[in-house]
């Protein structure tokens, strides 16, 4: 779902989220309204300033009258909507999703450079993941440390594709892509060349800053030292739209 | 008919191990083996990881002495960076290492070994633990717990966490020491020193009582390996390697840690997951040596702090002749001397003018393909050796853990104690406790994860040659 620039004239709709009567612009998504009103919904692939892929499903919500769950990031608000963001069923699903992310790759928080500053870690705490109930795959993934300034550790990647989108939509370089299928998917640079050999990478570091985990990090950081600054993204995105 | 006695698990040590005693037809001990029964695999699974992860990764080897691994690993990484870290960073690292020495030695002496020393080798195993010590001598038990707390608190004050702090990084430490934290640490040290001195005085008077044990607990001649300062004094963080033989003659001196492979070889045996390092020029297994507090004090000319030097002089009188103190029983004594040294040395370092200096980190990239870091862990000399590729990913790892250095000596010691105390035809619990106790002298850190004090079940079986159990003692 491409990000649409704010229209000059839009209707305002009224809706209920967790029993709270709210009004919102009709071009807003549920997650945007929730964020504006400080209603917590976990999310991973969604990021203010990037297009929407609705991939992680952590932001699913219940809508009155619909048996299906809807992703809050990719569903626009509508008049009269009644939304529940935090039922027991949603908590169960979210916890399972986070557990599956941990089981799929090798997220060893204690030795990760992003320890203490990691969105996946924070999500696990928020969703009550005190252990993982499914077997770990324990598949070893590559570490590409060929770039002068940055490193990608596929063991820590959750395939949120934030790096792919920020590189394409904000930086305009489109260095990143996704290769493979299913659990063999991995983010790649320049048709799977080592990052250090990439002709298109501008070394801007936006991909590193938006990465929610320790998958994309700066070289030279030790455990717990990789603190990411994501404030630049919504500012940059809005300025682009204004221009 | 030959029989085998199996002591499994060995209690009040860190980690999991088994002892087997092979008895001859006459009931005499024919052979004794110390088996490390768990496998960790750090040297293998670290391959492929960025070298900057190594300090945190390898620190997970141990919950008791993570600081030792953190320091040895960071020193190996400093070597990869090819940097000299700022002097203040080195001093701060030294303080953390000494704090670790205090807490680990306190754990070994008070929590793990004092039940034997205070309550007796033959006392009821149900109460022969730290809780038994609390009942018998509450002040001593409280002192031990407080001393360990002081060590742990200093680690926490410096690194933010008591266990697995990440404050030490390749190139130095990641934050300078604020004045208020320095003052907090300095305020704790006088109490620690008072406890350490009182305990030392108490134990010094107790030692004559254990003359028999001291003459059988690992007295066989071995060499001693440790780091020393360039002047030959006691050293725990940096320095050069020294080896003395059983007569006190210097065999190797001022060996740069970078050259450790010239003097140390590694052998393996099929009965244990622990390596058997040996002194290369003498070959395996003749090149037996010991490390740890006993070796450090035997190798050092002096400690370099006032009260510790007095205690060191008294330590040397434990040996009748002028040679090194050979009985492994005196590891306990050496530990108490080192606790005093560590507290005095921390006071000196923290009162230093530049300890609050803001320049505490050197920054660089991997500039060498190979890095070696050696430091003295509480249990002995700890060696980390890494090789990296062009991208800074680990290609190869060699870890020689302090307890590993003592492996040959521990095996020899249990044989010696078993010869002296175990009667195969009349098995008594107290006999086998002495066999365990000699292992406790070395304070082995096997998995570095388990801390049971006399509460783990212990089953000792006598089997005939066909494997039939002929006698069994069980401690629940």
Helix segment tally of chain B? 15
How would you name the oligomeric state of the polypeptide chains in this document? heterodimer
Q: Give the integer mean of the pLDDT values of chain A.
A: 94
Query: Structural class of chain B, please?
Result: alpha+beta
Shape of chain A: globular
CATH fold title of the largest domain in chain A = Alpha-Beta Plaits
Question: What does the model show?
Answer:
The complex is a heterodimer of chains A (243) and B (476). With 243 residues, chain A is α+β, with helices and mostly antiparallel strands. Chain A has two domains: 12-86, Ubiquitin-like (UB roll); 96-242, 2-Layer Sandwich (Alpha-Beta Plaits). Chain A is 24% helix and 16% strand. In chain A, the strands form three sheets. Chain A has a five-stranded mixed β-sheet with strand order 2-1-5-3-4, covered by helices on one side. In chain A, β3 (60-63) and β4 form a beta hairpin. The longest helix of chain A has 17 residues, at 88-104. Chain B has 476 residues and is α+β, with helices and mostly antiparallel strands. Chain B has three domains: 3-39 and 417-475, no CATH class; 84-217 and 328-363, Cytochrome-c3 Hydrogenase, chain B, CATH 1.10.645; 220-326, no CATH class. In chain B, 41% of the residues lie in helices and 19% in strands. Chain B has helices at 42-45, 54-59, 66-81, 87-119, 130-136, 138-159, 179-206, 211-214, 260-263, 293-299, 306-316, 331-350, 402-405, 407-421, 429-442; strands spanning 3-8, 17-23, 29-36, 168-169, 172-173, 223-228, 240-244, 250-255, 264-267, 276-279, 289-290, 370-377, 380-388, 394-400, 458-463, 469-475. In chain B, a hairpin with a 5-residue loop joins β13 (380-388) and β14 (394-400). In chain B, α14 (407-421) runs antiparallel to α15 (429-442). Chain B is globular and about 65 Å long. The model of chain B is unreliable at 448-459 (pLDDT under 50).
């Amino acid at each position: 779902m491409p990000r649409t620039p704010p229209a000059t004239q839009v209707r305002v709709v009224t809706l209920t989220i967790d029993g709270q009567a709210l009004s919102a612009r009709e071009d807003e998504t549920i997650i945007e309204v929730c964020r504006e009103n400080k209603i917590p919904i976990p999310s991973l692939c969604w990021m203010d300033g990037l297009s929407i892929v609705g991939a992680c499903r952590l932001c699913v919500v219940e809508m009155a009258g619909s048996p299906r769950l809807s992703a809050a990031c990719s569903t626009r608000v509508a008049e009269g909507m009644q939304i529940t963001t935090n039922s027991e069923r949603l908590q169960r699903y979210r916890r399972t999703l986070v557990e599956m992310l941990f089981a799929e790759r090798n997220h060893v928080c204690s030795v990760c450079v992003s320890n203490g500053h990691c969105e996946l870690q924070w999500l696990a705490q928020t969703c009550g993941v005190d252990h993982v109930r499914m077997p770990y795959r324990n598949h070893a993934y590559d570490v590409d440390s060929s770039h002068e300034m940055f490193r990608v550790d596929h063991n820590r990647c959750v395939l949120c594709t934030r790096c792919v989108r920020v590189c394409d939509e904000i930086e305009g370089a489109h260095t990143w892509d996704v290769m493979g299928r299913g659990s063999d998917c991995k983010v790649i640079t320049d048709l799977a060349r080592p990052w250090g050999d990439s002709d298109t990478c501008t070394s801007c570091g936006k991909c590193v800053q938006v990465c929610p985990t320790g998958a994309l990090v700066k070289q030279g950081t030790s455990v717990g030292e990789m603190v990411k600054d994501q404030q630049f993204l919504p500012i940059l995105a809005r300025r682009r739209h204004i221009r | 008919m030959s029989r085998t006695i199996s002591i499994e698990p060995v209690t009040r040590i860190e980690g999991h191990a088994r002892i087997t005693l092979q008895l001859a037809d006459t009931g005499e001990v024919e052979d004794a083996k110390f088996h490390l029964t768990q496998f960790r695999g750090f040297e293998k699974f670290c391959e492929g990881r960025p070298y900057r992860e190594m300090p945190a990764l390898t620190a997970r080897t141990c919950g008791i002495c993570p600081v030792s691994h953190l320091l040895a690993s960071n020193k190996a990484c400093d070597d990869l960076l090819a940097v000299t870290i700022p002097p203040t960073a080195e001093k701060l690292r030294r303080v953390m290492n000494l704090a670790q020495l205090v807490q680990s030695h306190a754990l070994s002496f008070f929590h793990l070994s004092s039940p034997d020393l205070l309550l007796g080798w033959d006392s009821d195993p149900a109460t022969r633990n730290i809780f038994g010590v609390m009942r018998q001598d509450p002040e001593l038990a409280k002192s031990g717990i407080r001393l360990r707390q002081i060590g742990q608190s200093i680690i926490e004050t410096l690194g933010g966490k008591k266990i697995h702090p990440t404050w030490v990084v390749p190139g130095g430490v990641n934050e300078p020491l604020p004045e208020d934290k320095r003052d907090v640490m300095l305020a704790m040290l006088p109490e620690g020193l008072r406890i350490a001195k009182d305990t030392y005085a108490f134990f010094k008077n107790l030692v004559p009582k254990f003359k028999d044990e001291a003459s059988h607990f690992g007295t066989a001649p071995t060499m001693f390996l440790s780091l020393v300062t360039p002047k030959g004094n006691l050293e725990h963080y940096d320095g050069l390697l020294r080896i003395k033989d059983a007569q006190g003659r210097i065999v190797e001196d001022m060996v740069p840690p970078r050259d450790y492979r010239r003097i140390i070889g590694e052998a393996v045996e099929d009965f244990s997951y622990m390596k058997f390092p040996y002194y290369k020029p003498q070959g395996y297994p003749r090149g037996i040596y010991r490390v740890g507090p006993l070796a450090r004090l035997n190798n050092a000319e002096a400690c370099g702090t006032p009260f510790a030097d007095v205690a060191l002089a008294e330590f040397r009188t434990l040996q009748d002749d002028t040679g090194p103190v050979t009985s492994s029983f005196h590891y306990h004594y050496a530990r108490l001397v080192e606790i005093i040294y560590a507290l005095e040395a921390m006071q000196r370092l923290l009162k230093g003018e530049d300890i609050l200096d803001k320049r505490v980190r050197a920054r660089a990239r991997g500039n060498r393909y190979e890095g070696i870091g050696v430091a003295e862990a509480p249990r002995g000399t700890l060696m980390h050796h890494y090789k990296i590729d062009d991208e800074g990913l680990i290609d190869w790892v060699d870890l020689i853990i302090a307890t590993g250095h003592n492996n040959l000596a521990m095996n020899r010691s249990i044989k010696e104690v078993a010869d002296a105390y175990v009667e195969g035809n009349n098995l008594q619990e107290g006999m086998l406790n002495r066999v365990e106790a000699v292992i406790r002298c070395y304070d082995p850190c096997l998995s570095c994860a388990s801390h049971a004090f006399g509460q783990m079940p212990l089953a000792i079986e006598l089997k005939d040659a066909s494997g039939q159990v002929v006698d069994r003692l069980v401690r629940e």
